[in-house]
Specification:
single chain, 154 residues, alpha+beta, SH3 type barrels, 2 domains, 5-stranded antiparallel beta sheet, 5 helices
């Protein structure tokens, strides 16, 4: 009994990183960064369905080992479930990476069309414009500094 108690205490005291968990990428392309921040340098990219090993957690960020290099990725890009594209039916052409990522999230062009049809009084022009918007890290850092923004993940 005492031996079992000692073993239990040892297991509880082991570092969390000893329990690396394998997770799947659930976005079209995930960015692995040098630091746990959206402003961290991108050191690797992972794609939909790729498997990574999570070795450490820091807030919403996960330190992962990819097939190429270690780094940090936001938890929203990860899934505990195995993510894979399984062909079926009468598929005559492949799906794009964007379609795969949207389908993995339960959203596809048919769902978007149905939503627009059900909400014809709404204009989606601003959403379409926003999807085209990009900002580089230097502009984002300047915005954060000028606005005095602070918070987890920045």
């Amino acid at each position: 009994m005492q031996r079992l108690l000692k073993l239990s205490v040892m297991v509880l005291l082991m570092p969390v990183s000893a329990f690396a968990a394998s997770m799947s990428i659930q976005v079209e392309e995930g960015q692995v960064r040098s630091t746990p921040s959206f402003l961290g340098e991108i050191v690797d990219k992972v794609v939909y369905g790729e498997s990574v090993d999570v070795v450490k957690e820091q807030g919403p960020w996960r330190m992962v080992n990819t097939k190429r290099k270690p780094g940090w990725i936001h938890q929203s890009a990860l899934s505990e479930s195995k993510v894979e594209l399984v062909p079926g039916g009468n598929v005559n052409e492949g799906a794009s990476g964007k379609e795969i990522a949207l389908a993995g999230k339960g959203f596809n062009p048919e769902v978007e069309s149905a939503y627009k049809a059900a909400h014809q009084q709404m204009s989606f022009a601003w959403v379409d414009n926003m999807e085209k918007f990009t900002a580089n890290n230097a502009d984002i850092e300047q915005f954060i500094k000028q606005g005095g923004l602070k918070g987890a993940g920045l």
